[in-house]
Amino acid sequence: MALLIAALATPMIHGAIMGTWSERPLQVLYSMTKVPLLLVAATIVCLPNFFIVNTLLGLRDDFHAAFRGVLAGQATLGITLAALSPLIAVVYLSGCSYPVATLSNGAAFLIATLAGQWTLARHYRPLIERNPRHRIGLVGWLLLYQFVSIQLAWSLRPFIGSPNIKTSFFREGSWTNAYVDAVQAMMMAL
After folding, report:
1. Calpha distance 109→105 (Å, rounded)
2. Is the whole-model pTM more than 0.85?
């Protein structure tokens, strides 16, 4: 239960700080809601596939331990984001631009994600020692979770609050495909 609470509550801290850049109270509330929503929704979307992969690999008896590892990783991610929040606040207080605010938060998410993956790998180590097929389940989880999280983060934007766009829970065009938009942006840059 403590892992679940940490995975839900601690990302709210980072979300609240993240939303302060725009200096709009409504954006703070939205961001505080969106960061845990992103992490929880991505996990929930990936869990059925994760269960099926574990079942097909003959690892269903270990699913409880694998799922506990996933929750521990998510809790670590949230706690790390919360721990990095004061640094984000300092960056914001320095009068940073919107691109710097975006990059700073991106770096915080990268660090937090790596910490979460490190925790997940620690939980998986004994499982892999017992049965090397767990490595396939772990890689499957990581790939699917990254894929879903990127699209979900794209759909839930804005998190910081662009200075040129009115505050709203979803940005116009949020339901487009992140990967298609990324390829189109690269094509336009060439």
Report:
1. 6
2. yes
